[in-house]
Specification:
Elements (H helix, E strand, L loop, with lengths): L4 H7 L26 E5 L2 E4 L4 E4 L2 H4 L8 H11 L13 H10 L8 E6 L2 H16 L3 E5 L8 H6 L17 E4 L21 H11 L6 E6 L15 H11 L3 E5 L23 E4 L10 E6 H4 L15 H16 L2 H22 L3 E6 L4 E7 L7 E2 L1 H13 L2 E2 L1 E3 L5 E4 L7 H17 L3
Parallel strand pairs: 3-14, 5-6, 5-7, 7-8, 8-9
Antiparallel strand pairs: 1-2, 2-3, 4-10, 9-10, 11-12, 12-13, 12-16, 15-16
């Protein structure tokens, strides 16, 4: 009897001692951060095929908040996969999904919240736009320059963090406009302390209403509470509260894109809590299920009820295995005090990075909130001293990788090193990362 390919594959171990396929099977549209061939992960570390350990302060772009392969997450996934892998939301109810919907009602302050589950951050942003438009009967969405909301057509139209995300794909959906975000380090004229912000973002928004679109036609304003791809830019203290006031004055919904800032990343469960702001819609993804595809939005249940049945959905949204992982993630965040650890380790890290800035003049700005941190590299002797230096940033990241630390770039000019540790990281690991960054900046010729 001839053994089929599938039978042969199923009889071999997962690793099987077989050579890995050539890397060229991956399409080149995926720009590479590293060429590491990783076999497993544990906590804040990735381990390659040859046993080399790398401190992963990328967290899969802010996904593995509970660390790599947390035993409780892995156990929840395995247990659920042995019972049911897919139970489509239109067709059946399943306990992990019901449990997660119930729990998500209480992750924001106040009562009356409900959740809608999707697969990816971009899908959840799309859902938030659809909900805002149908609830208000208005067509227009306003975003902020420097924001990143995804790579689908609608979310590309909202995104202005960098030209590569949208520059080749016009035309994009219309009725989307952008206004100024308060970037205090790059304010016209000179940098200033965010605590005494003089950025003219409010005047620019008012000008948008006078020059481009009547505010009564705006369904929602969407904002990342801390800009992500745009450079990890923390807003001045009064920004979000004042934006909330303006949106309420005009009957405009406020959408908080917490895809990257959520699930404890900034030292609060959601970043809007730092400023006591309640959005109309909050979008979440990334850290929600510790690496399994899941996303969603939170809104008051009476707002969610404005979606007529059947007007939105998706085959895999709220997948049962992903929901099991999400429930385990919530348990771990609470039981291991990861939000508090993010705040403590973030303060430790920020102090260390400020020490590096005093030593290295090419660090133009240090900023961050919790474990969402950034170094902005500049050419100190050029212009007003704030000229971006993306080449230096690239060299620093390369030197850090050589020293077994993974960090990423960000910013419109790719001159920002962004640091996104898993929330389980330790004080000793933070100290080790600061030391490696110090060595890397020196080795990069700063």
């Amino acid at each position: 009897m001839v053994e089929t390919h599938l039978e042969r594959a199923s009889s071999e171990p997962a690793t099987g001692g077989q050579p890995w396929p050539d890397r060229s099977v991956i399409p080149s549209v995926w720009s590479r951060i590293t060429n590491l061939e990783v076999e497993r992960g544990e906590g804040a570390w990735l381990i390659t095929r040859d046993g080399q350990r790398y401190l992963d302060y990328s967290s899969g772009i802010g996904v593995t908040n509970t660390g790599h392969a947390h035993p409780r997450v892995a156990a929840a996934i395995a247990a659920q996969a042995a019972k049911l892998i897919h139970g489509q939301q239109n067709i059946v109810y399943h306990e992990p999904g019901l449990r997660l919907h119930e729990r998500l009602q209480h992750v924001l302050p106040g009562d009356g919240w409900g959740a809608f589950l999707s697969n990816s951050g971009a899908e959840a942003i799309e859902a938030s736009v659809k909900l805002a438009r149908i609830a208000t009967g208005r067509p227009v969405i306003i975003g902020f320059r420097g924001g990143y909301h995804g790579r689908t057509a609608q979310t590309m139209a909202l995104t202005t963090a960098k030209d590569v995300y949208r520059g080749h794909f016009e035309p994009l959906p219309g009725s989307v406009y952008h206004t100024a975000y308060p970037y205090c380090y790059r304010a016209p004229g000179a940098s200033h302390d965010p605590a005494a912000c003089t950025c003219d973002w409010e005047a620019q928004l008012e000008l948008t209403f006078h020059q481009i679109i009547y505010p009564e036609h705006v369904a929602a304003i969407i904002i990342e509470p801390v800009l992500g791809e745009g450079g990890y830019i923390v807003p001045p203290p009064g920004f979000l509260p004042r934006l909330r006031e303006i949106t309420r004055e005009h009957g405009i919904m406020l959408i908080a894109d917490e895809v990257q800032t959520g699930y404890g990343r900034t030292g609060r469960f959601f970043a809007v809590e730092h400023w006591g702001v309640e959005p109309d819609i909050l979008v979440m993804a990334k850290g929600i299920a510790s690496g399994l595809p899941l996303s969603g939005l939170l809104a008051k249940r009476d707002l969610l009820a404005k979606w007529p049945p059947g007007t939105h959905g998706g085959t895999y949204g709220g997948n049962v295995v992903s929901c099991a992982a999400a429930n385990a993630t919530l348990d771990i965040i609470a039981d291991e005090h990861l939000v508090e650890n993010a705040a403590d380790r973030g303060a430790q890290f920020l102090a260390g990075l400020r020490g590096l800035a005093r030593k290295h003049p090419a660090i133009g700005d240090v900023r961050g909130l919790g474990l969402m941190l950034a170094l902005e590299f500049v050419q100190p002797g050029v212009g007003d001293g704030r000229t971006p230096d993306p080449n230096l940033a690239k060299r620093v990241l390369s030197e850090a990788l050589d020293r077994h630390l993974i960090v990423l770039s960000a910013g419109t000019y790719a001159n920002v090193a962004r640091i996104i540790p898993p929330l389980v990281t330790t004080a000793a690991e933070v100290d080790q990362a600061i030391s490696i960054l110090d060595q890397s900046i020196t080795a990069a010729g700063a």
